[in-house]
Design a protein that fits this description.
Blueprint lengths: L9 E4 L3 H10 L7 E4 L8 H21 L25 H11 L12 H8 L9 E5 L4 E4 H11 L6 H12 L15 E7 L2 H4 L14 H18 L21 E2 L2 H7 L4 H4 L8 E7 L1 E2 L3 E2 L5 H17 L3 H7 L5 E4 L1 H9 L4 H11 L1 E3 H10 L7 H6 L16 E3 L8 E4 L7 E6 L8 E4 L6 H8 L6
Parallel strand pairs: 1-2, 5-6, 10-13
Antiparallel strand pairs: 3-4, 5-7, 7-15, 8-14, 9-14, 10-14, 11-12
Helix pairs in contact: 4-5, 5-6, 5-8, 9-13, 11-14, 12-15
Length: 465
């Protein structure tokens, strides 16, 4: 509307003003009119809200709509370094200090992205270094093959991880992933799941400690995405940043699927669930807003394992947040089954779909609680019956008007992801809660260069077998 010459005003509460400024600048509208609503609306009484609206918000809205459209003057041209320019020289310690000062690091030491190191990464792709993979809001900077390699170097990746890094960026730049929401207040993180022969080929950990830092491939690839989100998308939490995670969480590890264990069970790998062929190398990225407690289940019977997993992962970890999923009619929790637990299910004749259907049928929440939880998150207009009328939720969510009726926590069983990974010598599983329509599971195939084997041999450390 502003670009068309029509005045507009964005109503923003105090806590979001800095984020709004970053978003407006990224949209090319740094002078966009903003009307501040003072304080935190969800902690104020109705009387306080009314007084704030009348005395402070309404005058600001009127002023914003009454002002003439202001065209932002072009900023004076500055010398912008080209991708291959050397921007800093100094010792290793000097480089660290410079990167910290510029906001280019995640608070940990980075590998200096020298031209030589970047060139080694670029050998592992036939794509042009200047090719734009996608534009990453809110800063709206271009993610190119070149700066992907730069951030891969900084994260401590090896050059042969480059095809994986490209697939990761393709996934998060896909419109359905909604990377623009990665700085929302729940503070969700992007979880990478890698499937295919490349897991074993590059030494990714899919077993004990799969989500622990320590194995170079898992750790550096996970860290790469966080650096990219900071340096290209602009998600930092400083004064100029767009990360509004209220408390936030952090894990920097890419998960790998144990396809050997999956094959022994007679199941298909997660990549096939995502629509690919068995044997494909596939990256899947999804948001994680919460993680369940570790679930230790004990029995030779599948139904007893399912009951405990449904209680801890389904009812306790997912129950509260399902209300937000219902609002957006889009929600994709992920269950990571330990190999020993998956084995019991398979031996009892259960498939992944049987597990999904069990969760769908047995994990429920009252309609009253779902609407109460949504209200607390600011979705004050959400009513389950209205979403059913609009076709966003199944009919069974409104079979009666009883506010205490029980409705499924999982809207569609096929939306539940299942990955087999972790310690084969322990009986543990864990659940990862997706942030509804933000960060839905998005998958891309890893494209290896034609001379993959020769390149790997060339890059192998001296003295290695």
């Amino acid at each position: 509307m502003e670009r068309a010459g029509v005045p507009s005003v964005s109503v923003i509460s105090s806590g979001f003003l800095k984020q709004a400024a970053v978003v407006a600048k990224g949209l090319g509208l740094p002078d966009m009119a903003i009307a501040e609503f003072p304080g935190v609306p969800m902690t104020q009484s109705k009387a306080q809200l009314r007084e704030q609206v009348i005395s402070q918000l309404l005058p600001r809205v009127i002023a914003g709509l009454s002002r003439p459209i202001q065209r932002a003057e072009a900023e004076p041209e500055t010398l912008t370094p080209e991708p291959r320019d050397t921007i800093f020289r100094g010792s290793f310690d000097d480089v660290q200090e410079h990167f910290h000062e510029m906001g280019w690091s995640d608070g940990m030491p980075v590998v200096p992205p020298t031209l030589d190191r970047i060139a080694r990464f670029l050998k592992f792709t036939a794509r042009d270094p200047d090719e734009v993979i996608g534009v990453m809001p809110p800063a709206n900077r271009e993610a190119t093959v070149w700066n992907i390699a730069v951030n891969g170097v900084m994260a401590g990746c090896r050059p042969e991880y480059m095809p994986i890094l490209l697939a990761v960026v393709e996934a998060v730049c896909a419109p359905e992933y909604k990377i623009e929401d990665a700085g929302s207040t729940p503070g969700w993180e992007s979880l990478i799941v890698l499937s295919g022969p490349i897991v074993k080929e590059l030494g990714f950990n899919a077993g004990q400690g799969v989500m622990r830092m320590g194995r170079q491939p898992n750790t550096s690839v996970g860290r790469f995405l966080r650096l990219l989100l900071r340096n290209i998308a602009g998600f930092t939490h400083g004064p100029e940043g767009a990360d509004k995670g209220s408390i936030g969480q952090s894990f920097l590890v890419a998960a790998a699927e144990n396809e050997d264990a999956v094959a022994e069970l007679g199941w298909q790998p997660y990549s096939v669930d995502r629509g690919f062929e068995a044997g494909d190398n596939v990256v899947t990225v999804q948001s994680v807003v919460a993680i369940s407690a570790p679930v230790y289940s004990q029995s030779e019977r599948a139904d007893e394992h399912a009951a405990l997993l449904a209680d801890v992962i389904g009812q306790r970890a997912c129950g509260y947040w399902t209300a937000i999923g219902m609002c957006y009619a889009n929600w994709h929790p992920l269950i990571m089954l330990g190999p020993s637990i998956a084995k019991v299910f398979a031996q009892n004749g259960w498939s992944k779909d049987d597990i999904r259907n069990y969760f769908y049928q047995h994990v429920k929440i009252s309609a009253r609680d779902a609407e109460r939880y949504a209200y607390g998150a600011g979705l004050t207009g959400f009513r389950i019956a209205n979403n059913v009328k609009q076709g966003l939720l199944p009919l069974e969510y409104a079979l009666s008007e009883d506010p205490d009726r029980l409705v499924p926590v999982f809207q569609k069983p096929e939306w539940i992801g299942i990955v087999v990974a972790g310690d084969a010598g322990r009986n543990q599983s864990k659940g990862f809660v997706c942030n509804h329509v933000q960060g839905v599971p998005t998958s891309r195939r890893v494209v290896l260069p034609d001379n993959w084997s020769a390149l790997r041999a060339e890059m192998a450390p001296k003295g290695s077998a």
